[in-house]
Specification:
four-stranded antiparallel sheet, alpha+beta, Helicase, Ruva Protein, domain 3, globular, N-terminal domain of MutM-like DNA repair proteins, 2 domains
Length: 314
């Protein structure tokens, strides 16, 4: 699933490419009886309303909140897109043949991972905003712009970890909400901190030297500080490298990100740890139903009698 760096990359690029353009038409290949009556475009009746509301409106800007892309339109209208497991937005010239949409331009847009087109916005520059979603898990809906923070999709999200307001004090306060939670799960809990998922949590914990199953209240102050710094460092690196394309994420140009080439823990099972002076082996376990990758040496579990409260950290 695209995480903060991938969604940030997508929103930043699209903000430059499509702001100021007008949506001239929309096509959708979504049609699911399971979503009948629901407020997303997989419900064909909702899509009719969606299309009527959106066509003819100018795109004001494109932003991100958590793992959501927000396409803000004129007249207090926002398109919210959660890309879920396999979704990514693409920009270029598309044509349809026998009911299947494909990119006209040669190059990255022709990448096989970009071929699952489920949604097409025709834009006033005669190009298209296409949405590739292999597994059809994504959510696309309309929300009143001034009601975004109150919407079911955003109202429970935690703070943004790269905002200036997300300082060490704020971080400790967030952790204190789940003192008995395993740190891997707490980092991925979107109500605690927005935007962090499986890939980046593994990399953060590797950098901070914390075992993914360690309970929050048992992490010593020095490690809490290292984790706070690791969150900033890893996410900033992910953005600098335009996201992670180990799976099928591509940016709006159809290009791969490069963060997958720097993995220290995620999907490195059996490899020797790259931490200087450490000769541990990267192992894989399940934490809350999700894979967790960690070093067998510098991320060992803390002794059972260790007790610490994040509020005590300095």
């Amino acid at each position: 699933m695209p995480e903060l760096p991938e969604v940030h990359t997508t929103a930043t690029i699209l903000n430059k490419l499509i702001s100021g353009l007008v949506i001239k038409d929309i096509w959708s290949g979504y049609n699911s009886s399971f979503h009948k009556g629901k407020e997303n475009i997989k419900n064909v009746d909702y899509f009719k309303i969606f299309k009527k509301e959106v066509v003819g409106k100018k795109i004001v800007n494109v932003k991100r909140r958590g793992k959501n892309v927000l396409i803000n339109l004129e007249k207090d209208t926002t398109i919210l897109i959660h890309m879920k497991m396999t979704g990514h937005l693409l920009y270029g010239t598309y044509s349809v043949k026998r009911g299947t949409w494909g990119a006209v331009e040669k190059g990255p847009l022709q990448d096989p991972f970009n071929r699952f087109i489920r949604l097409i916005f025709t834009l006033s520059d005669k190009k298209h905003l296409a949405f590739s979603d292999m597994r059809k898990f994504a959510k696309v809906c309309l929300i009143k712009t001034d009601k975004l923070e109150e919407s079911v999709d955003l109202r429970n999200l935690g703070p943004e970890p790269l905002e200036k307001s997300f300082d060490f004090v704020c971080f400790k306060e967030r952790l204190n909400k789940k003192p008995n939670g395993k740190i891997k799960q707490v980092l991925m809990n979107q109500t605690i901190i927005a935007g962090i998922g499986n890939i980046y949590s593994d990399e953060m914990l590797w950098l901070a030297g914390i075992h993914p199953e360690t309970k929050v209240q048992k992490i010593p102050a020095s490690k809490i500080k290292k984790l706070f710094e690791a969150i900033k460092k890893v996410l900033e690196k992910g953005i600098k490298l335009n996201g992670d394309s180990m799976s099928d994420y591509r940016n709006p140009y159809g290009e791969k990100g490069q963060f997958q080439n720097t993995h220290k823990a995620y999907k490195q099972t059996g490899q020797t740890c790259e931490k200087k002076g450490c000769k541990g082996i990267i192992k894989r376990i399940k934490v809350g139903g999700r894979s967790a990758h960690f070093c067998s040496k510098h991320q060992t579990p803390l002794p059972a009698n260790t007790q610490y409260s994040p509020s005590q950290g300095r």
